[in-house]
Amino acid sequence: MTTSDPIPNINIGQVYDKRYADAEVHYDALGRMADFFGRNMPAHRHVRFFQVHYVKSGMVRVYLDEHQYHQPAPLFFLTPPTVTHAFVTDADADGHVLTVQQQLVWSLLEESGDLGDVSDIAPLCVAASQLPAPQAPAMAGLDRLFDQLRGEIHRPRPGQPQAVRALAQLIFIDLFRLARNRVTPQPVRHEDLSLFQRFQMLIEDHYPHHWTLTRYADELGVTENRLNEICRRTAGKSSKRLVFDRLMQEARRLLIFTTASINEIGYQLGFNDPAYFSRFFTREAGMTPGRYRADKRAL
């Protein structure tokens, strides 16, 4: 992730899963990636990569450039390279995330000749609840393809790279076939979205410093009430909840992916009292940090 840009570029293979740093296709479960990146994903982009989120359960609020979608699962949203996107998913939302190098999709479109134009691939969202009846089986077929892809990724066997590539292409064929049924975006106020994104960047810089909401609001030049209203309208969450979610995201990430002690993690997150960190985590997660770490490592 490059932090010098206003909108970060995230290379999944370098930031999240270095085993696939140069892979043409990267797949993982939405829930597993949410453990690392969080349920409230700030604005970002993927240069030279297409990404598909297929959400099987829960609600999702998605921003593709300045277009807003708030839909129940099952649904998918497609993000072409460099398109800025952000999203918030329910705590129980799960599904699939597929990230592929742009050349794979471009080659597919050029070979087919009738799926779309390489120069005119727009971000889109398609929800099962808004599909015409004859198209409903296509969404079920997409679900099966993702399940097959997951099986190939997790069970190495002869021909795996070819199978993974073929399944990724089949998924994109179905996506483009369903594209004509895209959801109409909901209106969003540009100034609200801009301020919300600035708030998320401030959270990213200062969540370990435990800034008060008043300080965040002062930095943004609005009242605390105004900030809270914009957060609820944009993300469906209060400003306080967004700050707490970022703290919990980092706490979960450190518990799962590092060997740091629970006390050390608390100090890294700005808690001078280890007991207070443990109480905070337990209140938010419904279990102690130690139990959470043990449960995740047992999977």
From TrEMBL:
Domain HTH araC/xylS-type: 197-295
Annotated GO MF terms: DNA-binding transcription factor activity; monooxygenase activity; sequence-specific DNA binding
Keywords: Activator, DNA-binding, Monooxygenase, Oxidoreductase, Transcription, Transcription regulation
Top-level taxon of the source organism: Bacteria
One Pfam entry name: AraC_binding
NCBIfam families, per database record: HpaA
PANTHER family registered for this protein in UniProt: 4-HYDROXYPHENYLACETATE CATABOLISM PROTEIN, ARAC-FAMILY TRANSCRIPTIONAL REGULATOR
Descriptive protein name: 4-hydroxyphenylacetate 3-monooxygenase operon regulatory protein
Organism, as annotated: Alcanivorax dieselolei (strain DSM 16502 / CGMCC 1.3690 / MCCC 1A00001 / B-5)
